[in-house]
Amino acid sequence: MKKVAVECIRIALSYGRNEVLKDITLRIEPGEFFALLGPSGSGKSTLLRLIAGFNRHSRGQLLVDGRDITAVAPHARNIGMVFQSYALWPHLTVHDNVAFGLVERRLSNDEIRRRTAGALELVGLTQFARRRPNQLSGGQQQRVALARTIVIEPQVLLLDEPLSNLDKKLREEMRQELLSLQRKLGITTIFVTHDQEEAMTTADRMAVLDQGVLQQVGAPAELFDNPVNRFVAEFVGTTNFLTGRYDRARRSFEIDGLGAIPLASEATAVSVRPHTLAVVARGSATDGRRIWLDAEVHRREFLGEFTRYSVRAGGRTLTVDAPHLASEPLLAVGAQVRVGIDPAEVRALPN
User: Fold this and answer.
1) Is 351's pLDDT higher than 70?
2) pTM as predicted
């Protein structure tokens, strides 16, 4: 199967006066697993449905393999979509659900049997071919929906939050199976989710949208480590957003109430991830790499792998994620502590 690129060039879409997508320019590479990430109402599902042909943009171009498909009907685009609800026919067997698209295309019975059997084997459901959807688990239903889509051999695979109906453990298993299958097929895949963990663990690259505007595109680690603005910093992970003033002469950032931190580039605000901060009991040994501040523990949340502390320092509240070790006691609420900031982990942001 040929790997194809999907390209949006200055795409805009409005419902009346409500502009849902605003000047979206984006290229998804051939064979890439690409995630569209954003909160409810950000425009990510609208963009996915636009690529499928269910929505029509009012301005711009939509290219697949270099060809503008704006005027092409959804059924003629050779694009497959897996919906959040799976949309399986309850009265049909697994085999017939998967074969449905091939029957509609009027393929020969031999071809339908061959391709349906191949798709079911690919998703590990050969032995369930004669069952009906209500006899399957949520994860198995998701695989049927996936098999039904890939059996038509689409150029592009669209996934609209396909794991949201599954429990946490099954969701983690299925996203790895989904990624493994995509790698095996080599099909260009676009995955919509509001779950940052899903996006970061599966996507080669991802785009963050907010209110119809493309905020940033890049590899998950790039967006996490170097967000371009406050929205991306707070949506892709958790962060401490601190305002202040930049001192050009000293090349440092003066944070109100906390003091100065070395910073190479000018900024009106900085982002500091909670896991990059250190917290120790007052009087404990500290290293010279960090800038240490006196603080008090205001709140504590035990989250298993780490403990999230809310501490007050210099009139500011900071979130600190400390790795949990059974050999080390938790810090009590009200404890007098020191918080260490590593200047290398501070990121400049526009306010």
Assistant:
1) no
2) 0.89
